[in-house]
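As a warm-up, study this chain.
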Amino acid sequence: MRQGEVLRRALLGQWRHAALSAALAASHQGGEVLVPVVIGVVIDQAIVPGDGGALVTWIAVLAAVFVTLSFSFRFSFRAAERASEQAGHELRLELTRRTLDPRGGAESGRLPGELVNVATGDAKRVGAVHVALGAAIASLAGLVAGGLALLWMSVPLGLLVLLGIPPLLGLAHVLGKPLERRSGAEQERAAHASGVAADLIAGLRVLKGIGAERSAVERYRATSRASLAATVRAARAQAWHDGGMLMLTGVFIAIVALVGGRLAVSGDITVGQLVTAVGLAQFLLTPLSLLSWANGEFAQGRASAARIASVLGSPPAVAEGDGVLPQPVRGAVRLREVTCGDGAVRGLSLDVAAGELLGVVTTDPKTATSLLRLLGRAADPESGEVEVDGVPLRTLDPAEIRRVIVVAEHDADLFEGSLLDNVTAASADGMAEKAMAAAAADEVARNLPQGTATVLSERGRSLSGGQRQRVALARALAVDAPVLVLHDPTTAVDAVTEAGIAAGLRKVREGSTTIVVATSPALLAETDRVAFVDGGAVIAEGAHGDLAREHPAYRAAVLF
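Now compare it with the structure written out below.
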């Protein structure tokens, strides 16, 4: 996707409000042109001849013009702001949909904070193009109206304004190019700094625990300085742009005033027309200044649109599929000679019977991570197939896979809200209580002030590590998916609680397929079978006790 497509969507999506804003703003500029014209008429037709009745009449006309000016300004600005905010909102929704797309890909190469920055700062800047567009159209209307008014009084003055506008706009576009480039770099650096900050805050406890605060501060300081440098460069470009435009408009207005003065001296225009010409020359400063501002907003909007387009146009991590699973889903899982691109899984073959509780032990954490990505179809294998009930995952829609296979990763986060809301986020009917009991999360609730109604802080930081794990496990169990994949769900709980969770897991998942990727003896002892993966492939299978007695490498992996 290109930046032009993003801008087109933003503008066309709110074209009614934008058109209303532009029309009202143009009428406002037309009214501004009428003010010096009416004042000139008052001088020539009322003040110079001393006609009191005409003076009252023209003052009433002038008052009506000001009433129109007030009405058109207020409502044009209201319509422009509405279009701006609504367009930004629609872009944020679109970015959210792309980020949450089951096919993935939007997050590749980006920190979470960067995506947040794009969905907030960049979406707001693109939405603000509506305000700039209305201002630009109104400014052009004002310049044309001013030029026609001057043309009516004097052909040289009118031609000077009408013929001088196009080159002035061309120079404004040239001045805006450096600002566009540097605004894009500024937003990029700011987004990266936000991502690093969010990353560091999320791991603050860990950093403190290992005494790495200084290195973390240095990392953020370097990122922040790079962001500051980009901001200063963008501000410098903004200053050159605004200063250049101010100089151009000042020279232009001075020329108009000079020509008008010479015409008055030569007697080609009246005193009232001279006042009108000077007033119009001063008025022209406003639309020209607005054009300068709008040009800067367009430049920054284009830079932000390019960043939004890069997210919306991110290629999916996996393709859509049109395959259909047999109903009801039994949950038999099969991996056939699977190899993934990172080399962590190489020629892995594994059959998991429907309703089986399987343990998987890996000697390399990277292998466990890759296996989880393959089972949840966050990535497709480089070769081989991953199947559910005989249907290859690569032929299924990712959203359908999420309903059948739930992958609960080790570092799953909780959300701000009550404990019960966290558990029941996607739970099946009647499963919340059973899931909490199986995961020992009911014990966590009993120790909280308001029980399950206790509101947790961001990411569940108000709970201990073991308590968070139990609530996260309860949430995964409550979904009651045909296939559940768990990764190290009990690393932060004590041995007694872990044994209870292992027994509860077997009970609550009876008849459903469960794959536990872990090295916990308590969990592995409850499984029907354990597959030992080393070097990216299954090298041994059997009961936990048998493997622990007969296989030294397995024994080292789970007991030491």
